[in-house]
Amino acid sequence: MVIPPPVRPPRIxxxxxxxxxxxxxxxxxxxxxxxxxxxxxxxxSASSQEKALKPSLETTRDVAAAAKIGKILGERLLLKDIPxxxxxxPxxxxxxxxxxxxxxxxxxxxxxxxxAGVKLL
Length: 121
Hints:
This protein has helices at 10-13, 63-79, 105-116; strands spanning 19-25, 30-36, 41-47, 84-85, 88-89, 119-120. It is α+β, with helices and mostly antiparallel strands. One of its GO terms (molecular function) is 5S rRNA binding.
């Protein structure tokens, strides 16, 4: 059964930033996805669990893997003509969970997205 995305009133959608970056880190893997907020769908994603990426990574959970995931996600976003992404953290306008700081893996993903040519709002 397919659940349709929620319908939001047009008043709310004009204040939403269109693309939002979400990052998830576990003890084994790193993943990041960009969500199109008006339709609540995933626009693009990258993860260290992907079969095509595993051979090119030494480990799937360190800062180098996070940087690689950010680079690949940036390339995929540019292929889909998504030039800018909203990331919410206090210092860099990026909202993260309470335990996540702009440091380590988070910084690696965000910096590699910038290097790939994606603007952060």
